[in-house]
Specification:
Layout lengths: L2 E4 L4 E5 L8 H4 L10 E3 L15 E2 L4 E2 L5 E8 L3 H4 L3 E6 L5 E6 L2 E7 L5 E4 L10 E8 L25 E6 L3 E2 L9 E6 L7 E9 L2 E2 L6 E2 L5 E6 L3 E6 L4 E11 L2 E11 L20 E2 L50 H5 L5 E3 L5 E3 L8 E4 L7 E5 L6 E8 L9 E9 L4 E7 L26 E4 L5 E2 L2 H4 L14 E8 L6 E8 L5 E9 L1
Antiparallel strand pairs: 1-12, 2-3, 2-6, 4-5, 6-11, 7-10, 7-12, 8-9, 8-11, 13-15, 14-15, 15-19, 16-20, 17-20, 18-19, 20-21, 22-34, 23-24, 25-34, 26-33, 27-32, 27-34, 28-29, 28-33, 30-31, 30-32
Length: 520
């Protein structure tokens, strides 16, 4: 039996500033008097006032809000009946940035990282039927090992226990709670096809062993396929019967044995065959589209404009008028330089290393911008004819972190029968900021593989890893000198007659432009 209690009330709080003269050694002691401390209810941050509306002074690697240590304290009383034969955990859903937990003055554990949950086992530290003091020291001081490094993020690092806390009481044998804050159950699909998938399942257990008996697993619904049972875990493939299922594991602790139910939900995994972008280019079959009459700007104009309408009449954290930056960097801009790209144009044709030619101009306007700003139309349409299996697009525009993981714009190709194919422009999967290269580490910062091809305007270089090819270093900023566009491969239905292509901007505060369309 697992008991979970909200543990968010009756906390006391104070800052551990040098001028106050309160030491960490003092505040973790049960004898320390905290009668003058502030009562708080979690979630809580100590930067709700001094961190609101302030700017970051990047030259000093800190902002003008409090960066430092604080202490949260509260008592915990558990009866002998509640504690007998049980284990007690404290779960923190988030503490920014480093947290140390003490029980009755004894160190329990430390967690580094402001955006992940963690738990500590309090069983050996608490005394039943007595008042146990819980003290949590939290610090949001800049570090050189926790991102954002040394406060290089463009946001306020709100310090404190800014998410909820729970008290969890479990039997000694339980699904693991000390597994990096996870639920202890892992479902891992593999061998995925359009109609089926194999699923491996791992259940981590604490302080348990599988009973030494002939029937270790009872699986009346046939959920598991060739399960592999060890002393503390079960690994198995799962069948393709969709829905909720239950199997049972025979457990043993001491002389006690019982059947532990394990619930599993199996859902359908959708996956189609993958064709890499630009892997089917046939240059001899490419047809460039003439969209000169639709060009309404130079690509270099994007951050030279003032985007004034529509704007909220109220005070907001809106984008600066130049269309780039945010409230921490209101004067930020980027100089887009397409001289290298234009120098490669021959007879109004640009040939890329991918084998795809694009029609573009060596002089004058070379992009059709769309936007929800009034500076440009919100959509455009290009007439098409014939049939094609691919539409290759050369595009460029802006986006920002507030438009991440959503469709910023949409490209539709219509057929004469009224149907259409759609390509959503999603940051960061296939839509990138013209001035910046995404930082990707395959862990916290991921993109759909493969990364989109980009074209460097200053040199004409085409690459799906501009950061490496241009030697861009670091995590924050990663500016591309001169800017870069995006090259996209949109599959089409070759059996249908083409009618027209449309580009529409969907997100606020972005500009999306089309520089060339080539059909194959």
């Amino acid at each position: 039996m697992r008991t979970i209690r909200e543990f968010n009330n009756f906390w006391k709080f104070t800052k551990l500033q040098d001028e106050i003269g309160i030491s960490k050694k003092a505040v973790i002691s049960p004898e320390y008097a905290d009668t003058s401390w502030q009562f708080v209810v979690l979630p809580h941050t100590y930067n709700s006032e001094d961190g609101a509306g302030r700017t970051m002074d990047m030259s000093e690697n800190r902002g003008d809000y409090y960066h430092g240590s604080v202490c949260y304290r509260r008592s915990l009383v558990l009866s002998s009946e509640e504690c007998e034969g049980k284990e007690v955990y404290l779960e923190f859903e988030g503490a920014n940035t480093v947290a140390e937990v003490y029980i009755n003055g004894r160190f329990v554990g430390k967690h580094s990282g402001g955006y992940s949950a963690f738990r500590f086992n309090l069983t050996d530290y608490i005394c039943a039927d007595k008042d146990n003091l819980i003290a949590v020291i939290v610090s949001n001081a800049p570090t050189n090992y926790i991102a954002p490094i040394a406060d290089q993020g463009d946001f306020t690092k709100m310090g404190g226990l800014y998410r909820g806390v729970k008290l969890i009481i479990v039997d000694p044998v339980h699904i693991a709670l000390n597994d990096s804050g996870s639920c202890g159950v892992y479902i891992m699909p593999h061998n995925i096809s359009e109609s089926a998938a194999n699923i491996n399942m791992l259940v981590k257990l604490d302080k348990a062993e599988i009973a030494e008996a002939k029937a270790k697993i009872y699986d009346p619904q046939g959920v598991l396929i060739q399960p592999n049972v060890s002393d503390t875990s079960i690994r198995s493939k799962v069948n393709d019967h969709l829905g909720h299922h239950t199997f049972f594991v025979r457990m043993k602790q001491g002389q006690m044995e019982w059947w532990q139910p394990v619930n599993v939900q199996i859902t359908k995994s959708e996956k189609t065959s993958v064709i890499l972008p630009f892997s089917q280019v046939n240059t001899s079959e490419c047809r460039v589209m003439n969209m000169d009459s639709l060009f309404n700007a130079n690509v270099t104009d994007i951050f030279r404009n003032e985007y004034l309408t529509p704007r909220s009449p109220y005070t907001t954290l809106q984008l600066p008028v130049q269309g780039i930056g945010e409230w921490c960097h209101p004067k930020l801009t980027a100089d887009i330089d397409d001289a290298g790209l234009r120098a490669l144009v021959r007879d109004e044709m640009l040939t890329t290393k991918l084998g795809v030619p694009f029609r573009t101009l060596a002089q004058g306007s070379n992009i059709a911008f769309t936007s929800l700003w009034d500076n440009y139309p919100d959509s455009l349409s290009i007439p098409l004819s014939g049939r094609a299996s691919h539409a290759y697009l050369m595009m460029a525009g802006s986006t920002n972190h507030m438009q991440c993981r959503i469709a910023n714009g949409i490209v539709r190709v219509y057929y004469t029968d009224g149907t259409s194919d759609v390509l959503e422009l999603v940051n960061p999967d296939n839509w990138c900021p013209i001035e910046q290269d995404f930082y990707v580490d395959g862990q916290a910062f991921t993109v759909v593989s493969p990364r989109p091809y980009r074209i460097h305007f200053k040199t004409g270089l085409v690459s799906n890893d501009l950061g490496k090819d241009l030697g861009i270093k670091g995590v924050y900023g990663r500016s591309i000198e001169g800017g870069a566009g995006v090259l996209l491969d949109m599959p089409l239905n070759p059996s249908k007659e083409l009618s027209h292509l449309t580009l529409e901007t969907l997100s606020n505060d972005v500009v999306i432009g089309l520089m060339g369309v080539t059909l194959q």
